[in-house]
């Protein structure tokens, strides 16, 4: 039963309390005015507080995050909208700040009336560290994957791998155009085999690359559209117009040799 | 019925990639095929990019449901920017005020079939939905 009296609460809990206290994350419940009703053992440890001393304290007095006391507070939103929210945030407790993921839900009485909110908070320091490593790693792959290769006299090729954002698309265009000039290329192949998805802003960059290539006297061939990507572009209504495309890189390369007048054997 | 909800705040371009990735993952988890994943991820890419380009920032909620008969993905994209002046015009192919291709909104509608827009200064809300039989 939900009551707003902490001491009565403590007596009512036995197994539930044991379980909650042994959960390796912070669990807190507040009433509609953000008075703390319950804080589990991990929470008490993080905040260096005793449950008995929390009487009359607001959650935002014992823990701080950028969401506290704003409309962004997911516990507030959970109470108002009767919904569950999962959110990433930073939390400062007992002088330490660390990244968290918190889940906020409305707290209800037996009749289903919302009488407050509850949240559980997971320390995601480790996860964030790993994500940063992965991000740094994929950045390296990205940088590695933008060099243009000279395939033959007059033919340059740029294989794209991974997710293309607009910044990277910009960089790709510049690299390709620069290498067309440097190699006096007649054909440039842009291979998108490794690209899982193309939206209109990336498509626009591809279109720009093709017309800029033309201005420099080079034909740009796009190869390796996957069936999913091709279908999506058609549905979006992106007009690839008179752009030369080839299903596979191999076809594209032979087309390129045709253009410079050599038969590929 | 299994329901999962994820929210991604949209502030920078990286957030677009995160929203797309989360949607794909959530869809894969309940059995959507890769073509549907690509369609939905592309639609999300268009709409979240619009949020960052035209509104500055917003939120993308991704909700998936799985019942014995159906799998459903609902996406709610919300921003607190200036709003879309003329929704009918914005839904026309080729209409752009930002030097784009003007294919994002109408294209997203074709990609997912089910798209609704609500917009006024201060709040723009776009809902996408895709339902498939649970096989
Ligand atoms: N979230 C938004 N807030 C305000 N205006 C928007 C928003 N999304 C789209 N628009 C308007 O609708 C137009 C069409 O959008 P879209 O079809 O994606 O094409 P594009 O992004 O290429 O301009 C935009 O140019 C812009 O004027
Ligand atoms: Mg757009």
TrEMBL record, chain A:
SUPFAM superfamilies membership: PYP-like sensor domain (PAS domain), SpoIIaa-like
Keyword Transmembrane: no
Record domain PAC: where: 80-136
InterPro entries, A to Z: Bact_StressResp_Reg, PAS, PAS-assoc_C, PAS-like_dom_sf, PAS_4, STAS_dom, STAS_dom_sf
Keyword entries, A-Z: Phosphoprotein
Domain STAS: 145-256
PANTHER family xref list: RSBT ANTAGONIST PROTEIN RSBS-RELATED (PTHR33745), RSBT CO-ANTAGONIST PROTEIN RSBRC (PTHR33745:SF3)
Protein name per the record: PAS domain-containing protein
TrEMBL record, chain B:
Alphabetical list of SMART domains matching this protein: HATPase_c (SM00387)
Gene3D superfamilies to which the protein is assigned, alphabetical: Histidine kinase-like ATPase, C-terminal domain
Any Pfam family hit: HATPase_c
Domain (Histidine kinase/HSP90-like ATPase): residue spans on this chain: 35-134
Superkingdom: Archaea
Protein name: Anti-sigma regulatory factor
Organism: Methanolobus vulcani
């Amino acid at each position: 039963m939900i009551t707003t009296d902490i001491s009565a609460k403590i007596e009512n809990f036995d197994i539930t309390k044991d379980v909650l206290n042994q959960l390796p994350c912070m669990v807190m419940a507040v009433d509609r005015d953000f008075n703390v009703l319950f804080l589990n053992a991990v929470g008490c440890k993080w905040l260096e507080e005793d449950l008995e001393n929390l009487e009359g304290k607001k959650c935002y007095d014992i823990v701080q995050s950028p969401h506290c006391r704003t409309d962004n507070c997911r516990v507030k939103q959970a109470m108002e909208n009767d919904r569950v929210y999962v959110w990433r945030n930073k939390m400062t407790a007992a002088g330490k700040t660390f990244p968290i993921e918190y889940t906020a839900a409305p707290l209800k009485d037996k009749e289903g009336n919302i009488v407050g909110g509850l949240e559980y908070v997971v320390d995601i320091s480790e996860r964030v560290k790993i994500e940063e490593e992965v991000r740094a790693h994929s950045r390296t792959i990205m940088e590695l994957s933008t060099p243009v290769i000279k395939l033959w006299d007059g033919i340059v090729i740029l294989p794209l791998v991974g997710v293309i954002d607009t910044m990277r698309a910009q960089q790709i265009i510049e690299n390709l155009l620069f290498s067309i000039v440097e190699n006096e290329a007649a054909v440039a192949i842009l291979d998108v085999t490794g690209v899982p998805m193309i939206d209109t802003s990336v498509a626009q960059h591809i279109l720009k690359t093709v017309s800029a290539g033309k201005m420099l006297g080079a034909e740009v061939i796009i190869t390796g559209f996957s069936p999913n990507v091709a279908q999506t572009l058609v549905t979006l209504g992106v007009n690839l117009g008179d752009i030369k495309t080839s299903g596979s890189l191999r076809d594209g390369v032979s087309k390129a040799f045709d253009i410079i007048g050599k038969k590929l054997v | 019925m299994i329901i999962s909800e994820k929210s991604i705040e949209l502030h920078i371009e990286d957030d677009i990639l995160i929203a797309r990735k989360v949607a794909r993952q959530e869809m894969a988890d309940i059995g959507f095929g890769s073509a549907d994943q690509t369609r939905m991820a592309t639609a999300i890419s268009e709409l979240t990019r619009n949020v960052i380009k035209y509104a500055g920032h917003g939120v993308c909620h991704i909700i998936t449901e799985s019942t014995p008969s159906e799998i459903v993905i609902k996406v709610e994209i919300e921003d607190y920017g200036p709003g879309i002046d003329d929704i009918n015009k914005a839904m026309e192919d080729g209409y752009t005020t930002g030097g784009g291709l003007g294919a994002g909104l109408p294209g997203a509608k074709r990609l997912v079939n089910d798209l609704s827009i609500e917009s006024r200064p201060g709040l723009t809300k776009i809902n996408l939905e895709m339902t498939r039989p649970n096989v």
